[in-house]
Amino acid sequence: MDPPRPDPAGSGRASCRRLIEEYNCCPMPAKILQILSTQPPSLQEDFGEWLTKKLPQILQEALVGIHMLDEPLTKTYLYSEFLLAKMDHQLQNMLAKLSQVQQKVVQVKMQRNMLNKGRELLLHYSPIAVSGPVTRDCCLEPTKEVTV
After folding, report:
1. Cβ-Cβ contacts under 8 Å for 74 (sequence gap 6 or more)
2. Highest taxon of the source (predicted)?
């Protein structure tokens, strides 16, 4: 008795499924995906024969997709350019805000440094620091007796 032979239509359908699964990870024009998924080979057709019949239609859809990518004025292209411009604008705003914050941080650090330098100068050149500790005797003149 001969072993059961695989159904050629089943292998064609499986090949279609495999082809769809392979291309699911990358963008594929919707019409090609529709051809592969909704018009699989019939029970009598081999996948190779089916592909030979459908290849011109698939290639035509692929060429349309390539032409759309090459055409700079398509809606898809314009929309992607719009999104890129929008993201670029958002990034520019974020960078501007970050630079403002950084400038404020630098200003605060400079102000603190100036205050610290000012304090050091005051402490270094103040008369109290130069003459030493203040005593009561050195600042008072000798008292004179006043007669009334």
Report:
1. 68
2. Eukaryota
